[in-house]
Amino acid sequence: MPPAEHARPGPLGPDGLVVHHYNQEGRLQDYDFAALEVAEPMRHSLAVLFAAGCNPHRWTAHSSSYQQWLCVRRFTNYLSEQEVPPNDLDEITGALIDRWWMKMRTTSGNRATFRVVTTMLRGDERLQTGPVAEALARRIPASKSTTQSYSTADFAKIKTAAWQTLRSALLRIEDSAQHLERWRAGEIPDGSREFVVGEALDLLARTGDLPRYTNREGRPAEITKRYHKALGGTAAWDTWQRLFPTRMEAVALGVLLMAEYGWNLSVINRAVVPQASPDPGWDGHPTYRIPIEKRKRGRGRWFETENVTDHGADSPGRLITQALQVTRFSRAVVETLEPGTDRLVVWRSATPEHVGKDSDRHPPVGPFRIGLATEDARDWTKDKGLGGSPFRRGRRTVTAVERREPAQHSQESHDRHYVLPDENVRAAAVPVIAAGAEAAVDQAREAVLVAELRDTRDPDDAETATADCHDAESSPFPAPDGGCGASFLLCLACPNARVHSDHHPRLAHLHEALGNIRSVLPTPTWQRDWGDAHARLEHLKRSVGDGGWAHALARVTDTDRELIDFLLTGDLNA
User: Fold this and answer.
1) Quick check: 428 and 401 in contact, CB under 8 A?
2) Does residue 451 contact residue 464 with C-beta atoms inside 8 Å?
3) pTM of the predicted model as reported, rounded to 2 decimal places
């Protein structure tokens, strides 16, 4: 069990050179500053600065402190290369920092290292004034992420490969589970080969392994002949894979959890066993409660609960049902070996002696592993001919392209780090933006007809060439000497204009005439001179309807034609 936080020693060891970092799970990682190639006072000063970050409110994972450690080592390597290396931090100058920046500014990785080290150094009071403080305060913009979402076809290929892998494991384990159930029920005759297979499955289900001979060093070697013969061999396929998922099958499960729920790799590694509701409801379908642990840098951790129901194939809860089925035997053995583990993604390793390098993950339990490492994902995609690790790009695809909403992060992070830099999101946005622009134009065109439509004429209104005017003195287009100074083509854009059915034939003929002019003029010229008037008439046509418009064209008189002709040639004055 990890020591209680209040009982742990401070991050800085007694000698002032070894720094202890406990991650949020209480596991320990030590960093020995005595190994750095700088003077003793410099080692002590850097150890103090480094220790300040080794608390649960700063670096919650060993991966964080390890990355900081690598950056410190690069800085001390640079210091050791100087003609006269500084003895302690108070001998670091602004010029020395500037020279290091010139060396580090060329790549994003180097710039990130520079940013980490200068941020750490600013914590020492001796470096908070003067030219060195200015050099350390240099603003280094964060590098833009180069991770892109998958195309629809590529992501579908990844999910298909993962489903194929998981279903193969489900079929194999379910077949062995049924054999084990028959053996435990006494349905298989004693003395038969199938009986010995059932016995072997029972041993595997209870202990995770089979009885083995010991070698000269006293270590377990080959399984005993009794089971060797019955199982058809001693390979993993013949023995423990009958009940337990492999590393690659666990990765496939993780990929599907990412694709279905948007979980990142750390959430998958910490996922506990979902509990089905005790009351499945009237339809008998289980609803799973999934507590999701969320973490934010410097903000601790908290839990949220997701509820998903398995109501058949392709339902959100079906994957949880299958995950529980494929891991049930491995989880049962782990619970026996280490009660209270309660993790969902559990698989058996082919190399029990291999512990792994990721100290932020749950430690192995016998031959069983909890969760996944990045290299596991890379090996899976390489085996499938896909390349790369699917989790980072896959999660971006789920959150930015498919769901278009945050998962285990804020809306600001979602927009800044997932949506805006993603090429597929931008490509998908192009037709949406174009459609929005087109809709805005259509809306503008619909709004250009401002004149009031009426069924009959008001005798108090003054007749004009294209409409009746209700109040020329309050025109939005006043003339210098009073009254209305607008062209008759602008009448339909005036709130004082009144249009009734007697105007429809003349306006329908005007609409047709403007269309004829369009065929003989350059588009920019026509749009400049006649486009707005034509748009208002288009709006009127939609308001009247196709039938009413056709009826209006049939009622065009010679007077209407003469008025429109005068209007278009500019010979008719207000």
Assistant:
1) yes
2) no
3) 0.65
Q: Are 44 and 16 within 8 A, CB to CB? A: yes
Strand 452-453 and strand 497-499: the pairing is: parallel
With b meaning 16 or more CB within 10 Å and e meaning fewer, what string describes 215-246? eeeeeeeebeeebbebbeebeeebbbbbbbbb
Sign of CA dihedral 162, 163, 169, 172: negative
The pLDDT tens digits of the residues spanning 255-265 come to 999 888 888 88
- What pLDDT is stored for residue 12 in this prediction? 86
- The amino acid sitting at 391 is F
Strand ranges in 464-520 using DSSP code E only, listed in sequence order: 468-469, 497-499
Give the tens place of pLDDT for each residue, 94-104. Answer: 999 999 999 99
Q: Which residue pairs, CB below 8 angstroms and at least 24 apart, start in 334-342? A: 334/365, 334/366, 334/368, 334/370, 336/206, 337/208, 337/365, 337/366, 337/368, 338/365, 341/365, 341/370, 342/272, 342/273
DSSP lists the bridge partners of residue 287 as 309
Alpha-carbon gap, residue 236 to 217, rounded angstroms? 23
How far is 445 from 537, CA to CA, in rounded Å?
10
Q: How far apart are CA 60 and CA 42, in angstroms?
A: 26
Q: Does residue 5 have a pLDDT over 60? A: no
CA angle 530, 534, 537 (to 5 degrees): 150
Separation of alpha carbons 323 and 257, rounded Å: 9
Residues 316/260, Cβ–Cβ less than 8 Å:
yes
Is residue 354 over pLDDT 70? no
Angle at 125 between CA 124 and CA 131, to 5 degrees: 95
Which residue pairs from 13-17 have beta carbons closer than 8 angstroms and sit at least 24 positions apart in sequence?
16/44, 16/47, 16/48, 17/43, 17/44, 17/47
